[in-house]
């Protein structure tokens, strides 16, 4: 499948700080690429370079194989984008804002305004002034403007910002529909793994300007760590028994009273055979009062990945 978005050693330095550091991205046709990173990781800067809004210090960006750069305006013809909060004319209605975009884009079909209003479920707000929209609906209007010319590539910087859970689900469904049924290639950034990972075909995690992890969306589930949570009347004694038997025991943060929270072990054999742990503790005179398997959630995985690469996560 053809490569629709790519970067090679893309780098941006501001003063002494390298905010995007030799990033290599490759997004194929029909992919939904989740570009993830904490605040300040370098997502927007990368996206701005892809869109030609700022010039890289070194490295290149390509859209549909064409190099992004001055004098090559054709590169963005097939691209729709949102970078940060989308701007709309505040005193014009949703419909009027979209009509302006239609004319600016030189789209002949007048019906596309109606089409996009319907697609983004903006019918009830079509006559509302943009300044009176909720943040979520303003975001929806931004997506509508980005999509009206039916681009082959959509680049969306934090499109779920300000949306309520139902709005997030709608954006997810919309992106899935565009990728699956119209072959649109999507690059979508977020600082929350669970908001978009469910629909992505690939994920890239950027931290302090470096792309620290690339993972196939389908593999993600299998990378989530499982733990066995253990509790009993005497946590210290249980911890000592498990440690002496060779298990690495994790304790969650201590509470303010200094009391230990339930214990955790991540040993694969123990997670797969919790009855072995139960037998061990019963035989040692400390029967467990709790034994359950817990799976890491996506947010925990995201933060762990960053921490494992030496990242500082507050
Ligand atoms: N024009 C600029 N001059 C100096 N530093 C900048 C400039 N633009 C961005 N930065 C810095 O570059 C780093 C990356 O910023 P960027 O906006 O790309 O991060 P981000 O991952 O998009 O974060 P967020 O989710 O908060 O938007 C930040 O430390 C930011 O302060």
TrEMBL record:
GO terms (molecular function) for this protein are: ATP binding; ATP hydrolysis activity
- Which key words are in the record? ATP-binding, Nucleotide-binding, Transport
Q: Where is the ABC transporter domain?
A: 5-233
Gene3D superfamilies (alphabetical): P-loop containing nucleotide triphosphate hydrolases
Q: Known InterPro entries for this protein?
A: AAA+_ATPase (IPR003593), ABC_transporter-like_ATP-bd (IPR003439), ABC_transporter-like_CS (IPR017871), P-loop_NTPase (IPR027417)
Keyword set includes ATP-binding: yes
Entries under SUPFAM superfamilies matching the protein: P-loop containing nucleoside triphosphate hydrolases (SSF52540)
Zinc among the record's keywords? no
Extent of the signal sequence? none
Which family is annotated?
Answer: Belongs to the ABC transporter superfamily.
Stated name of the protein? ABC transporter ATP-binding protein
Organism of provenance = Irregularibacter muris
Q: What is the lineage of its organism?
A: Bacteria, Bacillati, Bacillota, Clostridia, Eubacteriales
């Amino acid at each position: 499948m053809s490569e629709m978005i790519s970067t090679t050693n893309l780098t941006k330095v501001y003063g002494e700080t390298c905010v995007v550091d030799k990033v290599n991205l490759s997004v194929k046709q029909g992919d939904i690429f989740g570009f993830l990173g904490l605040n300040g990781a370098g997502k927007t800067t990368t996206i701005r370079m892809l869109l030609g809004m700022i010039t890289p210090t070194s490295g290149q960006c390509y859209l549909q194989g064409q190099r992004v750069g001055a004098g090559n305006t054709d590169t963005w013809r097939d691209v729709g984008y949102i970078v940060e909060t989308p701007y709309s004319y505040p005193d014009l209605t949703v419909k009027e804002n979209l009509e302006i975009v239609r004319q600016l884009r030189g789209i002949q079909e007048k019906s596309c305004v109606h089409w996009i209003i319907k697609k983004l479920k903006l019918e009830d707000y079509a006559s509302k002034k943009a300044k009176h929209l909720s943040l979520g609906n303003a975001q929806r209007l931004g997506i509508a403007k980005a999509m009206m010319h039916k681009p082959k590539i959509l680049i969306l910087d934090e499109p779920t910002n300000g949306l309520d859970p139902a709005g997030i689900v709608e954006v997810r469904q919309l992106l899935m529909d565009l990728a699956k049924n119209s072959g649109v290639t999507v690059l979508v950034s977020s600082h929350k793994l669970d908001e978009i990972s469910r629909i992505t075909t690939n994920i890239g995690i950027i931290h302090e300007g470096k792309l620290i992890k690339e993972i196939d969306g389908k593999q993600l589930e299998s990378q989530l760590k499982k733990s066995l949570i253990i509790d009993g009347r005497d946590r210290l004694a249980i911890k000592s028994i498990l440690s002496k038997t060779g298990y690495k025991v994790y304790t969650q943060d201590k509470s303010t009273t200094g009391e230990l929270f339930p214990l955790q072990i991540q040993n694969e054999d123990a997670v797969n055979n919790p009855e072995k742990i139960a037998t061990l503790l019963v035989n040692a005179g400390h029967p467990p009062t709790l034994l359950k398997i817990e799976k890491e959630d996506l947010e925990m995985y995201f933060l762990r990945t960053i921490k494992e690469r030496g990242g500082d996560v507050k």
